[in-house]
Design goal:
Keywords: Methyltransferase, Transferase. InterPro entries: Alpha/beta_knot_MTases (IPR029028), Ribosomal_eL30-like_sf (IPR029064), rRNA_MeTrfase_TrmH (IPR004441), SpoU_MeTrfase (IPR001537), SpoU_subst-bd (IPR013123), tRNA_m1G_MTases_N (IPR029026). It contains ten helices and ten strands. The protein is of the alpha/beta class. Strand 6, helix 7 and strand 7 form a beta-alpha-beta unit.
């Protein structure tokens, strides 16, 4: 017969095993505002985890939205959330969701057509930091970009950290994941897009006119745009800098270019 110590150890092992199974089967949305955004969307949600003892207006709204959708709500200790999403600021709320569905290139064109706008895409060349991808998605949603294209290999995908950093934009900006960025850019050009990249030597980005169908390539955080992909670009853009730091974070550079595109597509009257 097992003593209490052994029973407790077995219980902890079972808990860790269940957590591991949930991690394998789910992605996670972390934080209160991202959770509310997801619950208001059509995204499939498997379970809602709420930290035991938390009571405030946002937690109440999350519970109300979850009940409205007849979702399973589980009140759990903080340690459970920390096992599910280690080293993340979960704010006492974690949603277990089905892995995010990726769009197709046609889906991106269809979104532009539905809005009766010329296509405006972001092409991300091996962005590795999920916070950068989430921030880029957030700005892409703000400026009305029709989608983001990422490679399947050597690039961060749609993870829970991306979802949290995007603060809900992941629900509104389709992301297509492709096998070969070079071939994809050639396809985009065949379908009428002008493709722009970023480089130290190029046209001042303030002259960038994005009125027509455009794609903007944002390079890897350390290496920039890969050499083969550079050869596909119609024009290079440069962001002038007169300070001591001569490089910008990928998401910051992307934001500047996206807002320049926004300005040319939606000029002040």
């Amino acid at each position: 017969m097992k003593n209490k110590t052994h029973q407790n150890d077995d219980h902890k092992k079972d808990a860790r095993k269940n957590d591991a199974q949930e991690e394998e089967q789910s992605e996670f949305i972390i934080g209160r505002h991202p959770a509310i955004s997801a619950l208001k969307s059509d995204q499939e949600i498997n379970k809602v985890f709420i930290q035991d003892g938390l009571k405030n207006e946002l937690i109440g709204e999350i519970i109300k939205l979850a009940k409205k959708r007849s979702l399973v709500i589980q009140t759990v200790p903080k340690s459970k959330l920390e096992r599910l999403v280690p080293r993340e600021n979960h704010q006492g709320v974690v949603l277990a969701v089905a892995a995010y569905d990726y769009a197709t290139i046609d889906d991106l064109f269809d979104k532009a057509a539905a809005k009766e706008e010329p296509p405006f895409f972001l092409i991300l060349d091996n962005i590795n930091d999920p916070h950068n991808l989430g921030s880029i998605m957030r700005t892409a949603d703000a400026v009305g970009a029709h989608g983001i294209i990422i490679p399947k290999r050597r690039s961060v995908g749609l993870t829970s950290v991306v979802a949290k950093t995007s603060t809900g934009a992941i629900e509104h900006v389709p992301v297509a994941r492709v096998t070969n960025l070079v071939n994809t850019v050639k396809e985009l050009k065949d379908r009428g897009l002008w493709v722009f990249g970023t480089d130290m030597n190029g046209t001042d980005y303030r002259r960038f006119d994005a009125k027509g169908p455009v794609g903007i390539i944002i390079g890897n955080e350390g290496k920039g745009i890969s050499p083969l992909l550079k050869k596909t670009v119609d024009e290079m853009l440069t962001i002038p800098m007169i300070g001591h730091v001569q490089s910008l974070n990928a998401s910051v550079a992307a934001s500047l270019l996206m807002y320049q595109a926004f300005q040319s597509r939606h000029p002040l009257n």
